[in-house]
């Protein structure tokens, strides 16, 4: 590579971050961005940065019991926080590897831990909203695999009688970390890197507030280069559903390889392509704006039918298989459709029973090849299901399911009529059958 000189004198810090990030990833240096005095190999290129601060790193994790789609929601909260941090000084969001999910139960795909975000999401798209990097890349530039400070977020033990934003250092109500007295350091799950990664500073914070309420705590009188917030789901969205919320959501594009698999399935079985369905994506989401009704959708009904633990814990919300089939039949007649795609966590025998009630229709379910399942795990298969559901002419989901919520988001981004998106299946005893709130996209 030839010599490239970049001068950013007087430039706003946030404009520098993509340059710094590209420099870090291109140089493949273990010390880059961590040592303020580091100088890259001039034989590759030269970077001259005037009046620039070395970036800091924010890491986070979520309660182990939370599922894949709730974790995606927490990412948005923390991404908005990092975007706000970047208004004053450079910060990079370190993406927590995926793994150990309750619903990821497949036995034939190996251990589902340490999965990078690039397996599921388009990192270039994420970076159009906020600077991000994979945890594995963070470890390459961290001199000793240390996270300087870890804060375990928790609710207030005494509860609360009124809403107010507040935060206090408190004794840990529950502490999942363990202390190595010989080396004077704390170890924990750390995304499946229990032995390699550690911290010397661990404190518990009782917090009530929005994500960006943490900004002063992270920036004032604090010099740690890397800070981790565990149990990040404790903090709330700054402003749920506003334009910044939707910028973060729009940036979360699925990885191209997963979209390709889903698109091939649509083409082969559902007579559905982006060109015919009017769902073609612009390469850059920041330049894309769709009106409601712009998307036509493929000639099929898509259904998310939640089963498994919902059948036990939410009996009033989940219909029997027979009643679900009755509702599907009614919609198929109304929409004059012959094909229906079912995304469900139901075991195969339950899916077979559902199909038996829908004999007059073409009923489809995505079944991954061993190669696809081995490479993309349960999370990738779930994304393929969501992408197929997102392109149907009409979608109906399950009540209070984050899986259904994320499909509704995708359809808003693609430009579907909300009346064809915000719908749910109802229990046979639910006579009113209230439909979900319509969280419409804001640009």
From TrEMBL:
Compartment list: Endoplasmic reticulum
Signal peptide: 1-29
EC number: 2.4.1.221
Phosphoprotein is among the record's keywords: no
Keywords: Carbohydrate metabolism, Endoplasmic reticulum, Fucose metabolism, Signal, Transferase
CDD domains: O-FucT-2
InterPro entries the record matches: GDP-Fuc_O-FucTrfase, OFUT2-like
Catalytic activity entry: L-seryl-[protein] + GDP-beta-L-fucose = 3-O-(alpha-L-fucosyl)-L-seryl-[protein] + GDP + H(+); L-threonyl-[protein] + GDP-beta-L-fucose = 3-O-(alpha-L-fucosyl)-L-threonyl-[protein] + GDP + H(+)
Pathway in which this enzyme or protein is active: Protein modification; protein glycosylation
Any one Pfam family match given in the protein's UniProt record, by short name: O-FucT
UniProt similarity note: Belongs to the glycosyltransferase 68 family.
Protein name: GDP-fucose protein O-fucosyltransferase 2
Organism of origin: Aplysia californica
């Amino acid at each position: 590579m030839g010599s490239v000189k970049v001068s950013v004198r007087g430039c706003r810090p946030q404009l520098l971050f993509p340059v710094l990030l590209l420099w870090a990833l291109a140089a493949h240096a273990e010390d880059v961005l961590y040592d303020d005095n580091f100088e890259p190999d001039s034989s590759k290129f030269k970077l001259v940065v005037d009046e620039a601060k070395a970036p800091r790193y924010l890491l986070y994790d979520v309660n182990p019991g939370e599922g894949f789609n709730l974790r995606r929601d927490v990412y948005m909260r923390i991404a908005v926080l990092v975007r706000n941090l970047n208004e004053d000084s450079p910060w990079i969001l370190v993406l927590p590897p995926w793994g150990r999910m309750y619903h990821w139960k497949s036995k034939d795909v190996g251990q589902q831990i340490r999965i990078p975000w690039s397996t599921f999401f388009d990192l270039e798209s994420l970076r159009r909203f906020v600077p991000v990097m994979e945890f594995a890349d963070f470890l390459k530039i961290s001199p000793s695999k240390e996270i300087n400070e870890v804060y375990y977020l928790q609710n207030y033990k005494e509860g609360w009688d009124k809403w107010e934003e507040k935060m206090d250092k408190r004794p840990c109500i529950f502490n999942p970390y363990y202390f190595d007295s010989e080396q004077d350091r704390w170890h924990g799950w750390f995304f499946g890197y229990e032995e390699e990664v550690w911290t010397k500073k661990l404190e518990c914070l009782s917090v009530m507030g929005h994500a960006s309420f943490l900004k002063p705590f992270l920036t004032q009188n604090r010099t740690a280069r890397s800070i981790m917030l565990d149990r990040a789901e404790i903090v709330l969205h700054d402003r749920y559903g506003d334009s910044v919320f939707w910028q973060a959501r729009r940036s979360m594009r699925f990885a191209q390889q997963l979209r390709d698999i889903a698109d091939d399935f649509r083409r082969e079985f559902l007579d559905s392509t982006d060109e015919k369905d009017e769902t073609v994506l612009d390469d850059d989401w920041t330049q894309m704006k769709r009106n409601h009704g712009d998307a036509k959708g493929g000639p099929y009904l898509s259904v998310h039918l939640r089963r498994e633990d919902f059948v036990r814990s939410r009996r009033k919300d989940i219909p029997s298989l027979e009643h679900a089939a009755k509702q599907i039949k009614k919609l198929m007649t109304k929409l004059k459709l012959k094909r229906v795609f079912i995304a469900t966590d139901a075991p195969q025998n339950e899916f077979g029973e559902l199909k038996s009630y829908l004999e007059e229709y073409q009923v489809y379910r995505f079944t991954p090849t061993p190669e696809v399942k081995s490479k993309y795990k349960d999370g990738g298969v779930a994304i393929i299901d969501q992408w197929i559901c997102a392109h149907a002419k009409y979608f109906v989901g399950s009540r209070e399911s984050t899986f259904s919520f994320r499909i509704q988001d995708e359809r808003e981004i693609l430009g579907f009529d909300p009346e064809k998106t915000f719908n749910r299946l109802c229990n046979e005893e639910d006579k009113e059958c209230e439909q979900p709130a319509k969280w419409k996209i804001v640009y």
